[in-house]
Amino acid sequence: GSGAVAAIKKNWATFFNANTSTSKRLALLQDGDKLASVIKAQSTNPLASTASAKVSHVTLTGTDQASVTYSILVGGQPVLKGRQGVAVYENGVWKVGLASFCDLLKLENAGKSSGLPPSCPG
Predict the structure, then answer these.
(1) Measured between alpha carbons, how far is 40 from 80 in angstroms, rounded to an integer?
(2) What is the pTM of this model?
(3) 71: nearest Cα among 84, 85, 81, 60
(4) Which of 42, 63, 68, 110 has the highest CB neighbour count under 10 A?
């Protein structure tokens, strides 16, 4: 319950923190190993260096999944507010769901799915 919610909030903040190492980010992303090149590329984006995430609400939807409401901030200012995402529980760790990460990549790609990593759901 509350331990899972706290872990999800902490892990999302860690994942989206520019100072978090690539290896740690990969460990906090569902199927992170399949997206290593994308995570590495993101780390060189100047915008990403000031980006962070704040989770405002978590609802556990099962023993291994949760619905997450979050905002992306750049320079401490919200730029994407009230986004809906998912967290998944894998190997004892609450992770940012692949669908949520791919949703952000799609936004970054002018709303297009073409050109996204093959592991992103269509």
Answers:
(1) 22
(2) 0.92
(3) 81
(4) 68
* pLDDT tens digit sequence for 56-94: 999 999 999 999 999 999 888 999 999 999 999 999 999
What's the token pair of residue 30? Answer: 């569902």
> Which tokens is 6 given?
């706290």
* Dihedral angle computed from the Cα positions of residues 27, 31, 33 and 38, in that order, rounded to the nearest 10 degrees: -100
Q: How far is CA 5 from the centre of its chain?
A: 15
Residues in the chain, overall count: 122
Contact predicate 100/68, CB 8 Å: yes
Percent of residues in the chain assigned helix, strand, coil, to nearest 5: 40, 30, 30
The phi, psi pair for 18, rounded to 5°, reads -60, -25
